[in-house]
Amino acid sequence: MVQGINGRVKRCVSVTMRVDEDGRIRPLSIQWYDGRTYPIDQVYSVCRRSSKRVGGDGLCYTVSIGGSKKQLYYEDPRWFVEEIVADDVPA
């Protein structure tokens, strides 16, 4: 986990994905570090992008999870999200 700016950290997550015969990757669900699994309802877009909040570079998938748009990054070979952390956590 890497501390970023604006109260966010780089959180690596497990992702269940499908790879098509032409090599396209489609994430199907995210497994959070505590074991909870969140299905991905829809993939809106995929583009190469850097995370300016927590660092890292790769493919950015804009997805819908539980009706909310989120960014999921594929930084080969790992996946990560920008996790929001509480400001009142003691250092």
Task: For the structure shown, list the relevant keywords.
eight-stranded antiparallel beta sheet; globular; 8 strands; 91 residues; mainly beta
Summarize this, please?
With 91 residues, the chain is an all-beta fold. It has no helices and eight strands. It has one domain.
Write the layout of secondary structure elements.
Blueprint: E1 2-3, E2 8-19, E3 25-31, E4 37-39, E5 42-50, E6 57-65, E7 68-75, E8 78-84
Antiparallel strand pairs: 1-2, 2-3, 2-8, 3-4, 5-6, 6-7, 7-8
Describe the structure.
It is a single chain. This protein is 0% helix and 63% strand. By secondary structure, the protein is mainly beta. The protein has one domain (2-84). Strands 1, 2, 3, 4, 5, 6, 7 and 8 form an 8-stranded antiparallel beta sheet that branches.
Count of discrete structural domains: 1
Question: Radius of gyration from the CA trace?
Answer: 13 Å
Distance between the termini: 15 Å
Continuous helix count? 0
- Mind describing the biggest β-sheet? 8 strands, antiparallel
| Strand element count | 8
Beta-strand residue fraction: over 45%
Instruction: Identify low-pLDDT runs.
Output: none
Shape: globular
What sequence of helices (H) and strands (E) makes up the elements? Answer: EEEEEEEE
Could you estimate the helical fraction of the residues in percent? Answer: under 10%
Oligomer: single chain
Which whole number gives the mean pLDDT?
90
Could you say which structural class the secondary elements and strand pairing correspond to? Answer: mainly beta
